[in-house]
Amino acid sequence: MTARPLHPRSLAAQAMGKIDPLTKAVVPPIHVATTYIRDEDNAYSSGFIYGRPDNETVHEAQAVLAMLEEAKAGALLFGSGMAAATAVFQALSPGDHVVASKVMYWALRSWLLTEATRWGLKIDFVETDDLNKLKAAVKPGVTKLVWIETPSNPLWTITDIAAAAEITHAAGARLAVDSTCASPVHTRPLTLGANIVMHAATKVLNGHSDVIAGALCARQDDDFWARIKTVRKGQGGILGPFEAYLLMRGMRTLHVRQERQSASAMALAQKLSAHPLVSRVLYPGLPQHPGHDIAARQMEGGFGFMLSVQVSGGEAAAIKSAAHVELYKRATSLGGVESLIEHRASIEGAGSPCPPDLLRLSTGIEDVDDLYADLDQALKAGHR
């Protein structure tokens, strides 16, 4: 009799249920070896050759993520989210045309505007949540890659992944999705038609603000995926074993954290929408959000842990409010168990699409009433 398939929550909680054959430990060990013994015939029957491309701890963490994303071709871990994202673009050829979300992770957008263009890539930034603009930007037979981020950081716009995939594939291109702020708990882009999904695994996949990591997952084991593997191997972008171990530890509690964080983010968005010192709340879970209906269709079990608020007193009041938080931490990054707040426009600098009155909030696992009380007192202090 065939056993009932296990839910991803169960598989992740037990790191795929693997037991160490030597000690019978239920927690996978850390493999730190950098080199491996050859067989007598000079082959490597173990499958491991050298520590840069091959490490068992990294393989185990990749297996967990591939399971969560339903990635038939598997997953690759990198030393950072930027290393993962840039590997996709480095796998293209000089002169290739790329269409990318206008609102996206600022560091990647900056890299695309500077370094990627030096290599000859031609990049057009468009509002990918507007499918008409996306379709107009994609050039059949010319565009090689469409890169979207949804929900997009820090405005949390929503792009219809399935529709974007249809437009992209009709033009003969590949679709890559930065799903960092959705996580596989809420969205699995590969099942919606994307070719590649990227995560800044530093964020919610790890969830404890103690690992820098990135990840790519693929739907098809094709020539482009092979090229990405070559880029990672050749440039040495693999994740270290200790970081992979910590990342795997984080993914074991991903579902529990995401459910709590998403529920708290929704509660905060609803309360802050009625706050007299907040002019607007950006969160796809709110019915008034322009992308709410699409988000409700492609996100499961919640709308994520990130939201932004625009402060009624403008930029000065926003910065002053952030300076008066007590429970929230004023820090860059997102997705950890601790709640963070940041004035993004001043961080991103000139050219940022971020409104100057906006504060970005990463929701942790603290008591939601405590989080709201902290924001309430900080907003009041910021308007004095």
Descriptive overview:
There is one protein chain. By secondary structure, this protein is of the alpha/beta class. It is 38% helix and 15% strand. It is built from 14 helices and 12 strands. α7 (183-186) links the parallel β5 and β6. The protein is globular and about 75 Å long. The model has no long low-confidence stretch (mean pLDDT 95).
Name its key features.
384 residues, Aspartate Aminotransferase, domain 2, Aspartate Aminotransferase, domain 1, 5-stranded mixed β-sheet, 15% strand
Summarize the structure.
This protein is an alpha/beta fold and about 375 residues long.
**CATH homologous group name of the largest domain:** Type I PLP-dependent aspartate aminotransferase-like (Major domain)
Could you tell me the radius of gyration in angstroms? 21 Å
| Tally of separate domains | 2
The CATH architecture of the largest domain would be: 3-Layer(aba) Sandwich
Task: Describe the main β-sheet briefly.
Answer: 7 strands, mixed
Low-confidence stretches: none
Strand order of the largest sheet: 1-7-6-5-4-2-3
- Count of separate DSSP helical elements: 14
Can you give the mean pLDDT? 95
What's the CATH topology label of the largest domain? Aspartate Aminotransferase, domain 2
DSSP strand tally: 12
Strand content: 5-15%
Q: Which sequence of SSEs, written as H and E, runs from N to C?
A: HHEHEHEHEHEHEEHHHEHEHEEHEH
Kindly report how far apart the N and C termini lie.
69 Å
Helix content: 25-40%
Tell me, what's the shape? globular
